[in-house]
Every structure is written in structure tokens, then in C-alpha cells.
Design brief:
alpha+beta; two-stranded antiparallel ribbon; 4 strands; 24% strand
Length: 90
């Protein structure tokens, strides 16, 4: 049996949020795959992404709209690079 994955789910009247450990690339990539399938079915995503790359860095917030597979692939690559930078800054 594979290891148990840890995630936190929070819900309110507006949002459904899933928090996943930054080290869990397998689970994160699985979610990206599901989102890509969703986009391939003709749906668009408005992404609001926030991140801090180091303890001395300030919070950055980016908003983007993804409406195609190529954009989804770009965001997936950007996210992977960003996760790597964040993990190195620990």
C-alpha cells in the first residue's frame, strides 16, 4: 500500500480550497492533469496565484486566465519551477 497523502480541505460559502504539502509533486501533478482535462473540455480557468519565494520576499499575487491546453502546460511548468524555488528557500 502506498503512503497516505496529507491534504487540508476548507470550505465556505464562496470557496473550496485544497492545501497540499509543497513537496508532494505527484499529487500536485495529478491535480494539474485533471485541470488540463477540464480545460480541454472547453472550460476556462481564472487562476489567482499567490506565493512567497523566500522569508525576506514579499507576497506576490498573479491572476491569469487559462483557456487552452498550451496555456495550461505553461502554467504547469511555471508552477513546477516556482515550487522548486520555494523548496530551496526553506
Amino acid at each position: 500500500m502506498k503512503e497516505v497523502k496529507e491534504l487540508m480541505v476548507s470550505m465556505n460559502t464562496r470557496d473550496f480550497t485544497i492545501d497540499i504539502p509543497i513537496e508532494d509533486d505527484e499529487l500536485i501533478e495529478t491535480i494539474f492533469g485533471a485541470l488540463k482535462e477540464y480545460v480541454h473540455r472547453g472550460f476556462s480557468l481564472r487562476i489567482k496565484e499567490s506565493y512567497v519565494t523566500s522569508l525576506s520576499d514579499s507576497l506576490k499575487i498573479i491572476t491569469k486566465i487559462i483557456s487552452g491546453g498550451a496555456q495550461m502546460d505553461e502554467w504547469r511548468i511555471e508552477s513546477k519551477q516556482l515550487r522548486s524555488i520555494i523548496r530551496k528557500s526553506k
